[in-house]
Design brief:
The protein has eleven helices and nine strands. By secondary structure, the chain is an alpha/beta fold. The chain is globular and about 65 Å long.
């Protein structure tokens, strides 16, 4: 059997577990070969498949996300390490970064709340050489991943990472103030029906936020006044049906709100001024 034939067979098997079965099979094969997907497609399709490929396909067939199997995810042109202790960064969240780059000046200081793998902050810093940033997360495991990603991308000298719980008193007392706050908080309703690859594998603490998915917005938005400088901006990712509710929370806290939609036209980010 060749690599090409093994990919074809794997894609057929994975069709029941994934809407992107062929792509998944190709990414897993490239990982097993230790090469990029493009290099594999150009040079390795007629080679024999590596022995470890079958075990990777078995894991994906059980709905384990490809990113956790390979340990890598792409976000805003960056290759990031991810682990089961971090949420997998998604293309929808690039809407938030596009909005941040739209409002961010040439230099400033940014805070990423619930940073996980560091995706949001690192994407901002990679595209704004004059910015410094701080990422915070309640998870020590996530902090280690974010720091590693910053090192790998050459951004360690412009970033700092702190394990903090924004529900704890005084959690931000020593962080200073910021020109920009970005946040992709937990916003899934507690009883929401999720795909198995999300429900069974991604960290619940990064997903769920009470019966309406609004608990973390209610906790964070009233605290923004002590985090941002006068004229500063905060940008929050939201679920597709949460624009009105989160806008109301922000308005009560004294913010004007501007909506940004993702590529599918769904409400995805709120800019708070």
């Amino acid at each position: 059997m060749t690599v090409s034939e093994a990919i074809r067979a794997a894609a057929e098997r994975l069709a029941a577990a994934s809407d992107t079965a062929r792509l998944d099979a190709e990414l897993l094969m490239a990982h097993a070969l230790g090469v990029s997907r493009s290099e594999m497609l150009l040079r390795a399709m007629q080679s024999p498949p590596p022995a470890g490929f079958a075990a990777l396909v078995d894991r994906r067939a059980e709905h384990e996300p490809v990113a956790y199997i390979t340990g890598l995810a792409e976000f805003f042109g960056l290759e990031l390490t991810v682990t089961p202790g971090t949420l997998i960064p998604r293309g929808d969240s690039e809407t938030l970064i596009a909005a941040a780059l739209e409002v961010a000046g040439a230099a400033g200081r940014a805070l990423d709340l619930g940073t996980g793998s560091g995706a949001l902050l690192l994407a901002l810093l990679a595209n704004r050489a004059g910015w410094q940033g701080v990422g915070v997360d309640a998870s020590a495991a996530a902090m280690a991943v974010a720091e590693g990603n910053a090192d790998a991308l050459g951004l360690a000298n412009r970033s700092a990472w702190h394990q903090r719980d924004w529900l704890a008193d005084g959690w931000a007392d020593d962080l200073g103030t910021f020109d920009l706050v970005v946040c992709n908080p937990p916003y899934v309703e507690a009883d929401a029906a999720l795909d198995r690859q999300v429900r069974d594998y991604e960290p619940a603490s990064a997903l769920f936020a009470g019966p309406q998915g609004l608990d973390d917005y209610r906790a964070l938005i009233p605290q923004l006044g002590k985090l941002i400088v006068p004229g500063g901006i905060a940008i929050f990712e939201i679920g597709a049906g949460q624009a009105e509710a989160v806008s109301a929370i922000a308005a009560t806290a004294g913010f004007a709100v501007e909506l940004r939609r993702d590529l599918a036209g769904r409400p995805r980010a709120l800019i708070l001024r």
